């Protein structure tokens, strides 16, 4: 029986990569021992080792594996190595371009391969989070019946992006970002091995350090930049990739940040937490990463406005107006000039005194309301403007604060159920110290126990 087109493409990939292939392809590991990084998944007895050693089903009988991690750290490579080690067909699809039709074709091909010549199939599905719920549902029969060993890769949190039935039937493996040591080992191998650059050029320490910086933990990016630098050096008849040659060849570091994926939220979170921690330099770093990655400046401005109330509040009452003004300016001018406005606001918020009392106060009040502490509004505070309100006793006995000395009227404002509750507990940081001095006096006046 003729193998299907997916199988033919996969078998071609098993052959030695031609010299014309990109360096990142030529240096793809062929065994688990050649994989750099991910030692938590590769040590003896680890789930990935057991998946390879136990073959079909792997540990705990799992027939599906989900690899979760940032780009360029070896998800595709691990899937290919597993198929090689277990001597299974390797079929690769991308959820960006494939749909249910293509998935069904692979599944049918897997059934034919298993029945015709006893060959099991590994289906590697990249970017599975791009599949809709219905598309992910189409994978379930193949997983449950073990028609394929599904290895799916995602850069997004699978607990949010993958349907529960598929997640519960899968072995979830979290991949860690590659370290500089991992990338250095990979580049040394690429420089010296015949399938790589074969010793044609060397890489001085300063050029290697720059390459590691621009790689940002991404093996593909590291090898692509190394190949560009090597090509430029060889073209100039040089035997080493100098820092100048590398900079000219690579031109510019690409920021490792996916504004549509997890890092969109991770970097935004880091920005806000750095502001909260008053580390202005770290905050500016994360701001720069978001700007350089093409993040929507309005999204950044919205986060800054939230931060102004969440983490600064009354400790610096000017923080929120600054953030709001920044958001308005961003909407009017856009990038690149908006970077200046966002920097202005970020610096001001990071260096402002901090108070989260606005956050804790509304949080405590909401908790009580949700717990059922939402009694009747006192009669004297109810609306008395409509006809018949007086007969119901609404607004009767209400004391108008502006008619009394100090404009604070001693009367009950809260429902009986929460009378005496204290939600706002001011700090003595920054300008909020003034509110700390005032609030107790006001509370005493409201109870009728303080001086007029």
UniProtKB/TrEMBL annotation:
Is Nucleotide-binding given among the entry's keywords? yes
Q: Which keywords are on file for this protein?
A: ATP-binding, Nucleotide-binding
SUPFAM superfamilies the record matches: P-loop containing nucleoside triphosphate hydrolases, post-AAA+ oligomerization domain-like
Matching SMART domains: AAA
Gene3D superfamilies for the chain: 1.10.8.60, 1.20.272.10, DNA polymerase III clamp loader subunits, C-terminal domain, P-loop containing nucleotide triphosphate hydrolases
Region: Disordered; residue ranges are 1-22
Which domain of life does the UniProt lineage start with? Bacteria
Which parts of the sequence belong to the AAA+ ATPase domain?
A: 61-182
- Which family is annotated? Belongs to the AAA ATPase family. RarA/MGS1/WRNIP1 subfamily.
Q: What protein name is recorded for this chain? A: ATPase
User: Can you name the source organism?
Assistant: Streptomyces avidinii
Origin organism lineage: Bacteria, Bacillati, Actinomycetota, Actinomycetes, Kitasatosporales
């Amino acid at each position: 029986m003729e193998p299907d087109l997916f199988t033919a493409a996969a078998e071609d990939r098993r052959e030695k990569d031609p010299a014309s292939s990109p360096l990142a392809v030529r240096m793809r590991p062929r065994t688990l021992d050649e994989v750099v990084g991910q030692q938590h998944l590769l040590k003896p007895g680890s789930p990935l080792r057991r998946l390879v050693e136990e073959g079909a089903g792997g540990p705990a009988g799992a027939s599906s594996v989900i690899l979760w991690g940032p780009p360029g750290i070896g998800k595709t490579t691990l899937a290919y190595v597993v198929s090689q080690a277990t001597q299974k067909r390797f079929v690769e699809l991308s959820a960006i371009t494939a749909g249910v039709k293509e998935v069904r074709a692979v599944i049918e091909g897997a059934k034919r391969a298993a029945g015709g010549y006893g060959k099991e199939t590994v289906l590697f599905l990249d970017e599975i989070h791009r599949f809709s719920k219905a598309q992910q549902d189409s994978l379930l029969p193949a997983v449950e019946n073990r028609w394929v060993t599904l290895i799916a890769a995602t850069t997004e949190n699978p607990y949010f992006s993958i349907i529960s039935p598929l997640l519960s039937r899968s072995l979830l493996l979290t991949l860690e970002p590659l370290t500089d040591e991992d990338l250095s080992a990979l580049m040394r191998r690429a420089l010296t091995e015949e399938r790589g650059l074969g010793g044609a050029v060397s890489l001085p320490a300063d050029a290697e350090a720059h390459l590691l910086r621009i790689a940002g933990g991404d093996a593909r990016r590291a090898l692509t930049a190394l190949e560009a630098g090597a090509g430029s050096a060889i073209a100039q008849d040089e035997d080493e990739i100098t820092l100048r040659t590398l900079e000219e060849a690579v031109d510019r570091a690409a920021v490792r940040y996916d504004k549509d994926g997890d890092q969109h939220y991770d970097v935004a979170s880091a920005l806000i937490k750095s502001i909260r921690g008053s580390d202005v330099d770290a905050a500016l770093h994360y701001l720069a990463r978001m700007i350089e990655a093409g993040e929507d400046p309005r999204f950044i401005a919205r986060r800054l406005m939230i931060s102004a109330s969440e983490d600064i509040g009354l400790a610096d009452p000017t923080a929120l107006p600054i953030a709001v003004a920044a958001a308005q300016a961003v909407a009017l001018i856009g990038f690149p000039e908006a970077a200046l406005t966002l920097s202005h606001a970020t610096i001001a918020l990071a260096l402002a005194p901090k108070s989260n009392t606005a956050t804790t106060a509304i949080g405590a009040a909401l908790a009580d309301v949700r717990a059922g502490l939402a009694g009747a509004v006192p009669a004297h505070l109810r609306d008395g403007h409509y006809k018949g309100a007086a007969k119901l006793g609404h607004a009767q006995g209400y004391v108008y604060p502006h008619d009394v000395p100090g404009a604070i009227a001693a009367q009950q404002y809260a429902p009986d159920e929460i009378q005496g509750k204290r939600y706002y507990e001011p700090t003595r940081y920054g300008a909020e110290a003034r509110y700390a001095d005032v609030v107790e006096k006001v509370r005493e006046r409201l109870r009728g126990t303080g001086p007029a």
